Amino acid sequence: MIVFPNAKINLGLNITEKRPDGYHNLETVFYPVHIEDALEVVPLNDSDKEFNLQVFGTSIAGNPEDNLVVKAYYLLKERFNLPAISIFLQKNIPSGAGMGGGSSDGAFMLKLLNDKFSLNLSDDELEVFAAKLGADCPFFIKNKPTFATGTGNVFLEINISLKGLYILIIKPEIFVSTRDAFSLIKPAFPEKSIKEIIQSPVEEWKDNLINDFEKSVFAQYPEIGKAKEKLYEAGAIYASMSGSGSSLYGLFKAPVENPELIFQDYFIWQGEL
Ligand SMILES: C[C@](O)(CO)[C@H](O)COP(=O)(O)OP(=O)(O)OC[C@H]1O[C@@H](n2ccc(N)nc2=O)[C@H](O)[C@@H]1O
Ligand SMILES: Nc1ncnc2c1ncn2[C@@H]1O[C@H](COP(=O)(O)OP(=O)(O)OP(=O)(O)O)[C@@H](O)[C@H]1O
Predict the structure, then answer these.
(1) Separation between Cα atoms, residue 56 and residue 111, nearest integer Å
(2) Is this entry keyworded Disulfide bond (predicted)?
């Protein structure tokens, strides 16, 4: 069985409170974008191992046991009698980019195992398992545009569509640690909730729909702030960093010509929403 975990961008991101458990409460809109990994699971026979993992494409730091697809397998194995499996993962989503690549893989693995072995877990039950994998994972279970609060695991479906717009996603060769990015933020509730701002036309989002990480991340890595300005110079209606970075995206009425000439040596992906 094969599935295609997609990435996400954040439309606005306000860090509202520091929690006793060290995590932060936030408000954001998660929006799926179809840069996709590929994930396949087949039975592992003739082996004394419980799992085998083969990763293709972008390499992932850490041991196989640290990979979120393996953590998802063991999470379900604690409750269900799962057979040994062979996992094939093709990585196309840039890692450590603020695009939820690893988080998506983990969530899609939960859904794949649920279907493949008929575990009959509901989406709500899968979201509880996903929250144990990481803050960005629960969103990928239903995988629809949604307003999120809490640590990113409390959802309110919203009616928003960016259909017809083009998105240009760029990522410089800069790794931003999510943990460090959070530690530099002074949490505060926004004057106006993203939930309201997002209902206004995209043309009104610039300077209103804010990602709270940008101030400290741009101060630490000025190149990322400059890349955002270049997105506007290229004609973006709205541009922002996604998550804790370092990826950025711009929304356009038409595809950008030759973005590789503007953003040399960057990861670049462009598509219609
Ligand atoms: C910034 C976002 O990408 C917005 O979508 C997410 O909140 C980050 O989600 P994520 O990368 O899945 O984060 P995790 O891997 O769960 O956590 C990494 C680290 O980020 C910090 N963290 C994460 C999420 C959150 N709501 N509060 C936090 O303080 C914690 O120090 C945590 O140890
Ligand atoms: N399947 C995987 N794909 C990518 N990274 C993985 C995976 N499994 C574990 N990781 C680890 O998780 C870290 C963060 O992964 P992920 O891609 O979710 O973060 P991100 O791109 O910063 O997105 P966000 O910050 O929005 O969650 C990576 O640096 C990597 O070490």
Answers:
(1) 21
(2) no
Residue 233, Cα to own-chain centre: how many angstroms? Answer: 26
Q: How far is the CA of 58 from the centre of ligand 2 (A)?
A: 11
Ligand 2: lining residues by beta carbon, under 6 Å: 60-62, 66-69, 91, 95-103, 105, 136, 178, 243-244
For the domain spanning 2-157, the CATH number is 3.30.230.10
What residues in the chain have per-residue pLDDT under 70?
A: none
The per-residue pLDDT for 26 is 97
pLDDT score of 134: 94
Report the pLDDT value the prediction gives residue 59, as an integer from 0 to 100: 85
In this structure, which CATH number among 2.120.10.30, 3.30.70.890, 3.10.180.10, 3.40.50.300 belongs to the domain 166-272?
3.30.70.890
- For the chain, the domains span 2-157, 166-272
- Model pLDDT, residue 79: 96
Question: Residue 171's pLDDT is what?
Answer: 97
pLDDT score for 268:
97
pTM, two decimals, is 0.95
Catalytic residue among 136, 171, 212, 228: 136
